[in-house]
Amino acid sequence: MTCPNHQQEPSADPATRTILDQLATLTHHGMVVDAPPGAGKTTLVAEAACALAHPGAPCAVFTQTNAQADELVRRLTRLDPHLSVARLASSQYAVPDSLLTRPRVQVSTRVQNLTTAHVIVGTAMKWATVTDRHWPWAIVDEAYQMRSSTLLRTAGHFDQILFVGDPGQLDPFSQTDTSDWRGLPHHPVTSAAAVVLDHNPDLPVHSLPVSWRLPPSAVPLISKAFYPSTTFRAGTTQAQRTLALTIRAIKRTPLDEAIEHAAHTGWALLELPARYTHRIDLEALHTVLGLAERLLLRGATTTCERDPESKTLTAADIAIGTAHSLQAEHLRSLQAQHYPRLHGITIDTANRLQGHECAVTLVLHPLSGRMDASAFHLEAGRLCVLTSRHRHACIVVARAGITDILDTHPGDEPVDLGTPPKSPDGWEANHIVLEHLADHTIRS
Amino acid sequence: MSLLASLLRLRADASGHAIRTSHVRHLHLSDQPLMMLPLKRTGPAARPLAVMLGTSPLRPRLLIAPPSGSTATMLTALAKAVIGHVASHHRAKEYLPATATRPERARYLDAPQLVVPNQQAVRFLRTLASGLRLRRLDDQSPSANSIRLLGQWLTHFTDRAQIPGSAALVSLTDLLVMHWITGQSPQDDDLATLLAWIYPPFGSTDGRDAARHAEAPDTYRGAGPDTDAAFDNEKLTPLVDAYARDPTPALQELEKLLAAYLQPTWDRLWQAYALLQAIPPTASAGRRWAAERAEFTDHTTHLDQDGRPRPARDQAVSAAISLERREAARAAFNADRALEDPFVRVELRTTGDAVGGTVIAVDDQHTICGPGGRDMWRPRITLSTQDPVHLEPGRLLTSHLHRTARYQVRGLIAGPVDTLVELEITAGMGTVDRPNHTVLPSAGAFLVLTAAPEHFRMPAFPSRDQTPWTHGGPPPEHLGDGDGSQEEQ
User: Fold this and answer.
1) B-chain residue closest to A30, CA distance
2) Which among A202, B241, B410, B458 is least surrounded, fewest beta carbons within 10 Å?
3) In A, residues 227-286, which contact B (CB 8 Å cutoff)?
4) pLDDT band at B88, cuts 50/70/90?
5) Mean pLDDT, residues B437-462
6) Annotation: CATH topology of B341-451
7) Dihedral, A114, A117, A121, A126 alpha carbons, nearest 10
8) Which of A177, A186, A188 sits opposite B472 (nearest CB)?
9) Distance in Å, alpha carbon of B351 to nearest chain A alpha carbon
């Protein structure tokens, strides 16, 4: 008996439909689904969880963060109001009241208390504490961000596992030295999806071909720079996604030029004069916050397929992305002190923006103001996350001279036997993005 | 490198004197360490050239490998020295009673300690060890066995060196830079120049002057294990050629040359050791050394009962366990250092990972609703600080004055000058009737809070033969005869 999902409409997306059909009769140990940014990954996870859930044999869903788990629980209850959903949470974590009060949602810190649930959602770290259980199905969300060592703890509890994730985003990392395991297929800090594919080459791999988030202006670049092997297309048309500025500027500053250009083309690079700076480049930070404020002051409005009526852009629709947490912290405190209008804006590092979606993204370029590039700052996943969160436009702020940093960067990373070359290469991806932004550059 | 460390480096450079940072030592140092000064041949990854070693500064032993041919004689002598040092610690044991999680066990009263000049020497020993422990036992001669056992012990020491806070194998350069900041760029950390900065010899005006003398090309000696090119070309190559013609006199010449080459570094090693040993150790250094003794006991037991060498490559389960141990050790070591070392706390405050501030408000009536519906006492305090705080709500902090206390960050309010940090005390505050006032401060008190060590234990990983399909299923059995088998112990 499947869960009471008979009232549900079949999924609109044909790719998702195919995957769900195949899941029902899958004879392999599992399946991997690669999804580019905004391709309906969470929808697929929710629908698959619903389809695989059986009373008495619940479907386990692994997320990587508590926020993702909470969001998925909300999505599941919306998808099927009759579904009994459980949220397995750590005792350290305060589950939001909106979940605690929802009907047919159970919250517990112990899996033993969740006997009647159809679907149990928890973070991978919480699931790692569950022992002595055996269930038929598990779904791993963001499988390219989960460590293989975390999967090792729990994979044995399930007969079959569906892995869903975005291969272009940031890989898991460790602050300790992991050089001992370079080249091993079961490197403990490699991603869960990578370790599974390496050991089970016959596993079916699907990819979702349409990005519903990225506007048509962004898809060709993101697809070329970060997803060279699995191209995808936009699910919307240029006419459906508009960003307009309703208030004219009396005196046009470079900030205005940048937002006008971005409103028009979906991209802008606001280039500050070349300078070597510490991680905290106050001028660049103020420029980023100034851009956000200008967007609101100029009365930016958006239309899209969800809201065909024009909608005024608010601070909550904007996200600012940085490479370092120190920069994000500094931006947040500057915002609180000097930019009260931006209350509610999202400011975070690339690592924490994974999975986030917003109307407009403002990016402080990871290489801005640096003397040299490093593996951390060149990582393709970092730039991919920063430039693929938006539904309308992305504005990058950077010091001039990044092309020179890239050109003079000595490619002296050691090559290890057994380690496949990283695809896409960070250096190359950075160059492709810069080349594209060259046509959208406004100098300050 | 933190901004504070950069600033101190600039100051050291401007003044010409090294600056003392940490006044406590975080690693245990033995009274009788086995000092080892290895040199390798330029070219091959793990061919030793010479090792100077000993437990006393006055009587170093120099072991030389011939320039060509078998190194077995030298390795046998090295094995005898290292295994002899290890065996001298296989004497008295203490017996620890059973606890809730562990059965009764025995532990040696002391463990051997190896001391080398730098990280490069640690890496060289690791490469050497992995070659030796997996050597094929073609000839069953006693020397082949002892060389393999040397490989197993060196593997033990170099594996422990991967664990932050372990003192089984100490790199002196790394330990020196934990206590002094010099005007030298961190990339040039080198025993000779560091020691010149820290402890300038008589006759030099200051540390910078002494370092300049130490770097003079004609007298400079690198601390190995690599020899410099000029030494290779001018001194070593003629002797290698001479060895090919007539081995015996050339070998004597080589011994004389290397003894003279190594002697200054040997003296510096002991000088650095004496400097470091004079620094008072922390309480947690003693605790970690007790854990080291347990590791030493376990490895001895493993060699006696099983004896198979650690495989060349880790399996999925052993790799995951090893990563988890390293990460846990790193977190615990960082937390201990913050609790015991005022300089570490200051540095953490400058990077925003710790906070120091004045208590401006105390709400000692605050309670929350516990899981059973009972009210739980959770007093709250507010700190006012000018530190650049980067702590997320939910983070647990502790105080070096009261280590069982836990302060949970509830929120941050950034002001124009000061930041207000709201904290909830979740442990160590006593009861409502008898509050512990070191933990529950009064308004006006100054508190420094650092990240609390985590004691949460994850359940064990699956056993090797339970390796799931995602990681390739259970690996084949480990034979341990060194013929390329890659299983874990």
Assistant:
1) B470
2) A202
3) 278
4) very high
5) 82
6) Elongation Factor Tu (Ef-tu); domain 3 (2.40.30)
7) 20
8) A186
9) 9
Contact B319 A325 (CB under 8 A): no
Alpha-carbon gap, residue A212 to A188, rounded angstroms: 33
Query: Tens of pLDDT along B165-182?
Result: 999 999 999 999 999 999
Does any CB of chain B come closer than 8 Å to the CB of residue A177? yes
CATH at A137: 3.40.50.300
Whether A348 is in a domain gets the answer: yes
Contact A337 B416 (CB under 8 A): yes
| Separation CA A301–CA A308 (nearest Å) | 11
Report chain B residues whose CB lies below 8 A from the CB of A192: 470
Each domain of chain B, given as residue ranges in start order, spans 3-310, 341-451
Same domain for A351 and A424, yes or no, is yes
Q: Left if phi > 0, otherwise alpha if psi is -120 to 50, otherwise beta: which for B418?
A: beta
Subunit contact A155:B313, Cβ cutoff 8 A: no
Gap between the Cα atoms of B39 and B227, Å rounded: 7
Question: Are A35 and A208 a contacting pair, CB within 8 Å?
Answer: yes
Within A213-280, residue ranges assigned H as helices are 219-226, 254-265
Domain count, chain A: 2
A264 and A148 in one domain?
A: no
User: Which of B86, B68, B75 lies closest to B51 in space, CA to CA?
Assistant: B75
Q: Which domain holds residue A93?
A: 14-208
Q: What is the pLDDT of residues A111-126, one digit of tens each?
A: 888 888 889 999 998 8
Same domain, A120 and A191: yes
Do A180 and A48 sit in the same domain of this protein?
A: yes
Asked, for residue A398, whether it belongs to a domain, the answer is yes
The answer to whether residues A195 and A236 belong to one domain is no
pLDDT at B485: 37
Q: Using CB atoms and an 8 Å cut-off, which of residues 85-144 of chain A contact chain B?
A: 91-93, 128-129, 131
One-letter identity of residue B17: H
- Indicate if A388 and A293 belong to the same structural domain: yes
